[in-house]
Amino acid sequence: MSTPELTTTDFPSTLTSICVVLLVLAVACAVFVGADLLRRPQQMAVMNAVWPLTMLFGSVVWLLFYLRVGRAPRRETRASDSGHGRWTSVAIGTSHCGAGCAIGDLVGEFALVAVPALGAVVGLGTLYQDRVFAGWIIDFVIAFVVGILFQYFSIAPMRDLSLGAGILAALKADTLSITSWQVGMYGLMAIGQFAVLPAVLGGRASVLTPEFWVLMQLAMIAGFACSYPVNWWLIHRGIKEAM
Length: 243
What we know:
By secondary structure, the chain is an all-alpha fold. The chain has helices spanning 13-39, 47-70, 86-114, 118-121, 131-159, 163-201, 210-236; strands at residues 5-6, 204-205.
C-alpha cells in the first residue's frame, strides 16, 4: 500500500506557520543579496547568480557568510585579492555547487507536479512505482547540468579554456561534488519522508506544502556537509579552482 501524501491541513497549523516564516525569511535573504549584488557585483560573474540561490537553503546563516566573506567592494572601489583562507574558499566552492542543486530541486519538483508524465520518462511505473524517486532523478539531472554550467563559467575564464576543454574541466571539477551533495540531500530527505513523517503523521509531505521545502532546506545543509570534504580534496588536488 502506497504512503499517502500529506497536505497543509494534515500538519499542525503552528508547524505550518513556522515553516512559512522560515521560507519567507530565506526568500527575503535572496532578494536582499540580489539587490546588494546590483551595487556590488562579483568579480566572477557567475557568483552573481550563485549567492542569491544559496540564500534559498542557507537563509540567515548564508547571508551572514556572504556579508562576511563574499560581499564585493562597491563599483567605484577597486577590488583587491580576497585572501580567503582554505576553509572559507572551500565553503564558497561548495556553496557554488549547491546553487545548481537548488535550481534542480525547485525546477525538478515543480515540473513533475505540473507535468506528471515526466515521471514516466525517467522510469516511473516501469522501473519503480514510487513518485519520490522520479522527483529525485529529475532533480539530479537538472542539478548536474546547471552545476556543470556554473562551474564552466567559473573555471573557463580563470584558465582561458576553449568550450570543449572548459566543459571537460567543469565535469572533472564538479561531478564528485554534485554527486556527494545529492547523496547527503537525498539521505536526509529519505529519513524525513520515509521514516519520520510516516511514523509521526502517517504520510509524506507533499511538494506543495511549506513543510516539504523546509525539510528540503535541511536536506540541502546535509548535502553541503557531505560535499564539503569532497570539495576540499578537489581543491587540494588542483582539480577544482579555489574561490
